[in-house]
Amino acid sequence: MIAVPARPFAYPLAPEGRTALVVIDMQRDFIEPGGFGASLGNDVTLLHTAIAPIVSLLAAWRARGWPVLHTRECHRPDLSDCPPAKRGRGEPLLRIGDPGPMGRLLVAGEPGADIIPALAPAPGEWVIDKPGKGMFWGTCAPEGLHARLQAAGITHLLFTGVTTEVCVQTSMREANDRGYTCLIVQDATESYFPAFKRATLETIVAQGGIVGWCAPSAAVLAALAPA
Ligand code: TIU
User: Fold this and answer.
1) Could you tell me how far CA 17 lies from the centroid of its own chain?
2) What is the pLDDT of residue 52?
3) Which atom of ligand 1 is nearest to the CA of 163?
4) Fewest CB atoms less than 10 Å from the CB: which of 48, 160, 200, 212?
5) 172 near 182, Cβ under 8 Å?
6) What's the pLDDT band for 227 if we cut at 50, 70, 90?
7) Mind listing the pLDDT tens digit for each residue in 20-67?
8) Dihedral of the CA atoms 67, 73, 79, 82 (nearest 10)?
9) Ligand 1: which residue has its CA nearest to atom 8?
10) CA-to-CA dists, residue 30 to 25, 26, 33, 99, 199, angstroms
């Protein structure tokens, strides 16, 4: 194990490809103007600071040939996997499936559902389309994501991406309940609500790491031996 200085205490990062880097929903629909995030009334520029740290972590994982998972929150074009309760929620400018400047919002195959070019998946990396906020719900049919991770020998997950308190936290909680040893990289995740990000990081590490660990990307990168 590689000890990463972290809160609430050192994180035991598993080498030899057993720790996957998870990049949650770094899609144009959340990061760029005119997408789903903006339609909910959010300032999408608040998410941009997470991009550079994720670039650095991706380079480190790729240099070692360690597994990388990208997720995309999106739905089938017929919206059969979008519960009416999700589509009807709130008063957005545009709803899921409505046409916008980057195509239909949160629909697979539309430009807005793509991962931003700076973080484009490399060949061989996992790309998981998820209809919910959590990455284990309704994904990787028929066996499910947990079975796929187990088959790949992945026991540890590093979480990055957006938004901290919605899809990142939900996915990290799902993973924690399934027995994964999880760390959230504090500068590689962002929220439209800085106070919610702070509260989420504190919630995760409280009570002896009730959901997992938290560390900056510099601490993770410094702990890794030269590739
Ligand atoms: N709205 C919001 O903060 N997030 C989402 O809707 N999805 C994700 O977090 N990816």
Assistant:
1) 19
2) 98
3) 9
4) 48
5) yes
6) low
7) 999 999 999 999 999 999 999 999 999 999 999 999 999 999 999 999
8) 110
9) 167
10) 8, 7, 8, 15, 21
Residue 203 CA to residue 199 CA, distance in Å, equals 6
* Residue 86 annotated as catalytic: no
User: Is the Cβ atom of 115 under 6 angstroms away from ligand 1?
Assistant: no
CA dihedral 206, 223, 124, 137 (to 10 degrees): -10
pTM for the whole structure? 0.98
Amino acid at 211: V
Report the first-to-last Cα separation within the chain, whole angstroms.
16
% of residues, the chain, pLDDT over 70: 100
Asked if the model's pLDDT at residue 202 lies above 90, the reply is yes
Distances (CA, A) of 47 to 32, 51, 73, 107, 189: 9, 8, 16, 21, 8
- Look at ligand 1, atom 10, and give the residue with the nearest C-alpha: 167
Pairing of strands 213-215, 99-100: unpaired
Phi/psi of residue 168, each to 5°? -70, -50
Quote the pLDDT of residue 226: 72
Residue 170 corresponds to which tokens in the numbers above? Answer: 């939900």
CA of 167 relative to ligand 1 center, distance in Å = 6
- Angstrom distance (rounded) from CA 136 to CA 208: 24
Cα separation values, 170 from 16, 200, 219, Å: 27, 11, 24
pLDDT of residue 224: 96
